[in-house]
Amino acid sequence: xxxxxxxxxxTIQHPSVEKLQELAVSGAGCASCVTKIETALxxxxxxxxxxxxxxxxxxxxxxxxxxxxxxxxxKSAGYGAGAIVNEDGLEAQDEKEKxxxxxxxxxxxxxxxxxxxxxxxxxxxxxxxDMSVSTGPRRIxxxxxxxxxxxxxxxxxxxFFVGAWKSLINHSAxxxxxxxxxxxxxxLYSMVVVLFPTLLPEMARHVYFEATTMIIGLISLxxxxxxxxxxxxxxxxxxxxxLQPKTARVMRGQLEVDIPIAEVQISDLxxxxxxxxxxxxxxxxxxxxxxxESMLTGEPMPVEKAIGDExxxxxxxxxxTVVFKATRVGKHTALAQIINMxxxxxxxxxxxxxxADVISAYFVPAIMIIAVVSALAWLNFGPAPALAFAMVxxxxxxxxxxxxxxxxxxxxxxxxxxxxxxxxxxLIRNGEALQTASKITTMVLDKTGTITEGTxxxxxxxxxxxxxxAEVLQFAAALESGSEHPLALSILxxxxxxxxxxxNVQNFQAIAGHGVEGQNQDxxxxxxxxxKLMHERNVVIDKxxxxxxxxxxxxxxxxxxxxxxxxxxxxxxxxxxxxxxIQAINRLKRGGVRVVxxxxxxxxxxxxxxMRAGVNEFFAEVLPQDKAKKITELQASGExxxxxxxxxxxxxxxxxxxxxxxxxxxxxxxxxSADITLMRGSLHGLADAIAVSKATxxxxxxNLFGAFIYNTAGVPIAAGLLYPFxxxxxxxxxxxxxxxxxxxxxVSNANRLxxxxxxxx
Amino acid sequence: MESIIINGAxxxxxxxxxxxxxxxxxxxxxxxxxxxxxxxxxxxxTPSHVIVPAHKAFTMNFLRKDPSHCADQVLFxxxxxxxxxTLNQAQQIxxxxxxxxxxxxxxxxxxxxxxxxxx
Lengths: 761, 119
Known about the structure:
heterodimer; A: alpha+beta; seven-stranded mixed beta sheet; elongated; B: alpha/beta; four-stranded mixed beta sheet; 1 helix; 41% strand
């Protein structure tokens, strides 16, 4: 591949360049193969280096030799080789679309060929033509039609018969088996009628060539339409894959070089102009801009980016030119991981689909048995011509049964539902999470960083001794300098703003859920934390409790600072509630979900925050290790519990909940523990996730109900259950049409989910 | 007499279906080792039964020759792994070290079915 160098807006083509290529190798069974393959490659002109990864069965080649030469060299050494297919890549997507298009064209061609024989035959029968074999010339005419029908079976219908045969010899049966048996039986019977008419009673000398050809034509048409409809079910993932730009403008010394994104290395400096997509993940080192991250997070407002801020691949640079340092490339970018997670979830099945899976496993042989039983019933109890009725009923049973509708019912809806959720910035880990999310009765929300912004700031410093405000802040900052807790960061921020300097404390100790302690350089023992901690250490705070409660009633968190066992100040911090938390919580409540807030904060502050956020229930002063216990308690009372959090402390609770929701802006640990990840900080994602899950489950149920009803009603009717009462016996052609369109109906119903809107934001 | 023959044949056919598809335990074609190549064609995986050693990561290469949508996904439900198979291109799937047991793999509609036997 050539590299395009850009300098001063001019493009220069360099025909031959050094490059890194990776190939997949097959057939290498022992370590000695490694040397053989590497040697074969090193002998190729233009190869500088070749290194094989035996575990991964890949070989990395440096040099300018073209890929086809490298593959040929490996093959001549006795092994298989090919390009590594990146299933998440644009090329793979293009390949898939090309293959789907070719398959669609093949099916349409098969449809036209089969129906061009079938339709005239069927019209002949419908318009009163004699479909039986009576005279000599008529036999010859039907023999010609029989041979034409054989042509339809061998060409447009070939794949049904080949598939059926291969499955049969492997003791397995599928849709091809049913179609091949159905159409084959009709054709064989008709050929017996044509070739040996005297073997059958006169009334049974009817031919069914039109059934064979029409069934092949209609099922091919159904498959073609299904193929088109299926393409739409994966639109969400296509859109995500499409977010990846093909090239990146990397700075190489004084030059800017356009290279494929696969060649971007960590620490490369990448320039992005306004309107361009960010090619890989990175950190801004030059310039400022507003970046549209809506495609990943669902957040419509562009986000301001300056030096030190992170950029994600696939987002769009809106205003200024920025230079950033690549931090994650290839399959490690956030976008690649999102694509991977969405694809994995799309292919997972919720428990509701398991019954259909079990039935699918026994379905086809069971239908074959029903066909035989049906034929026997007609032969034993049917009117004349019993043999013809038996053949028609058996064929119709085989053709009308649709294992595909059952098999597709769940995965198609999951595919669209998970994709739809991803479009709203909600990543669902698997089908089980999707199903459970639709049943959530209680949603537990962590306070800090979930309901609130998670960026508290110091609002009040109440002095209770002779120490000055600056000294108090210095002591507090010295204690909190080692902590990453949001409250600690607010103290440090406040100290910095006032230009206060501090030195680290000695004997530092964090008391989980309570506070911190240590000794400063002057030997003063410092204790900083909540009311409980002060009581435990016998620090007298009674006189100042009223003030602390007053601060808490304004949704501020009061923290007590003691020096040498004496209270010296109360520092209050305020963590504002997120702009849309109240609205999102109301959405959850309107949807019938009980909302509970969980916090380590004191009762009064928790009560004030809960009231402001519209949460009726809360658990305050919950230690990190007790969060999971609270979830268990709720579960024990019969609730299906969702837990939303963003911190490391939440990980056990997220794992314990029936569905764990991680706020995407949170830590990797929380996201790892979560069943559903919200890509943006807004709690609307929760309501969106539940709404999409409910809609998807509803869609799956419709599909499963439709598929079950179709098969359980269609098969008995095809067997002739209505004949004794109403004289109705289904034609195999009608059965073929019904079968072809049943799976199309399932896919189309799943596609309806694409139009679903999670709700008002 | 005719009736007995017809019904007897029918019952024999049903018995044959039950035996062939559900009861018969064929000697499955199995491959083992690190280099597992699976052909996806005509409704079956070839081979459909693979044997691998326990506690050792391994790779499976799927080559899809069937253009139908049935074949375009392979799922390992117990392992929560899935992959899209591109037509006529080998797709490498890295699988983790597994405990002894049987692990199914199949297409989305379960028309294609295979099994990994970890020993």
